[in-house]
Amino acid sequence: MTQDLLERITVSEGTMCGKPTIRGLRITVEQILRALAGGLLPEDLLADYPELEPEDIKAALTYAASVVGEERLYPIAGA
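User: That's the sequence. What structure does it adopt?
Assistant: Structure tokens below.
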């Protein structure tokens, strides 16, 4: 299921400056995350972007969780 969702995320140098997008559309993962973080409900997001599907929102969240899950922060000595 997770891999199926992640297949909806595409990266192309020629689309949105290489940012991760949904299915090659000009809608970035970042746009979706910022809208949701700003309080927009998924139903409203889908209404604002009729080309989006509910699975696209799940894909954006799954992608973000994956990226954050791989992130490691290391303290700088002496800082």
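The mean pLDDT is 93.
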